[in-house]
Write a structure and sequence with these properties.
Length: about 270
């Protein structure tokens, strides 16, 4: 399945149900779901508290990068000049039917090829989307369309999580089975490369899967962690280039597979 086909009406219905559940139920019922491969996502209260840590002006041009069905539109539209892009026609149709008064602000576009000029946005919010993107191109585009002094908030999953994080391993395998576009970030490499183009303003590292949903994080990068969120501020408008820092497989999963393979080989050797 090509990636555009994945983000269809069925996914839109699924994502609406997951976010509604995250807002209405406690973490425990969702933990049960993750064992069957379902996604565990934080409730909006936690996410919006994080968004509120940035300072907004009503004149700020804000890009909701991968806006989904527009669930953050009501929050941002009150305080900024809002634009939403998404790769999914089904998601954008849903945004337009919910908010017809701002139909022209919702655009079908790939995050790696944004239909905006350089230095356009004061704020870019990329929440729950970066792990589905071709990340080196995605972050380059975000930096290109951001103004110097503009802020970019981005979340993702790290290549190196704890090997006892069962929920993370289950989610990684389930995503692969479903054909979910799913990439992990070598965050150390990303942060070190970002230094040329941006200041690091906020760091949040969520050690285990589920910590984001419980707002449990550290702001010092640990050796291993599952999810991450950064706020960066563009410091200059240079030609942007990133060496590869993303991978379709986490290192944790790769090591687990190698261990299993070694056990099989050892088993055969001793027969
Ligand atoms: C998990 S949903 C999150 C949506 C929204 N940010 C939210 O939190 O409700 C991921 C969204 O990213 C969009 N998406 C995936 N890959 C994308 C890409 N390369 N460019 C733009 N949007 C993309 C999907 O269509 C989907 O709407």
């Amino acid at each position: 399945m090509n990636r555009k086909e994945y983000w269809n009406k069925e996914y839109t219905t699924y994502w609406k149900a997951m976010t509604e559940e995250a807002n209405s139920e406690g973490a425990i019922s969702r933990i049960k779901k993750t064992t069957s491969g379902d996604y565990k996502t934080p409730g909006e209260k936690i996410i919006i508290e994080f968004f509120e840590s940035l300072h907004y002006e009503k004149t700020d041009k804000l890009l909701d990068y991968g806006c989904g069905f527009g669930r953050f539109y009501p929050f941002f539209n009150r305080i900024t000049d809002y634009y939403g892009i998404d790769i999914s026609q089904a998601m954008i149709d849903e945004c337009i039917s919910r908010y017809p008064e701002d139909a022209e602000k919702f655009i079908v576009a790939e995050g790696e090829r944004l239909p905006f000029e350089d230095n356009y946005f004061n704020k870019i919010i990329c929440y729950g989307v970066f792990d589905a993107c071709y990340q080196e191109n995605a972050i380059s585009e975000m930096l290109r369309v951001s103004k110097v002094g503009g802020s970019i908030l981005v979340t993702g999953k790290n290549t190196e999580y704890y090997d006892d994080d069962e929920q993370a391993l289950i989610a990684e395998e389930a995503a692969r089975k479903k054909g979910h576009p799913n990439y992990f970030t070598n965050v150390k490499s990303l942060v070190s490369q970002l230094g040329q183009y941006a200041y690091l303003k906020q760091e949040r590292y969520f050690t285990y899967r589920g910590d984001f949903a419980n707002a449990k994080y550290t702001d010092l990068m640990p050796d291993k962690f599952y999810e991450w969120a950064l706020v960066i501020e563009k410091k200059n408008h240079l030609d942007i280039h990133f060496e590869k820092f993303s991978d379709a497989y986490s290192n944790t999963w790769k090591k687990k597979i190698i261990k299993v393979q070694n056990r099989i080989i050892d088993g055969e050797d001793t027969k």
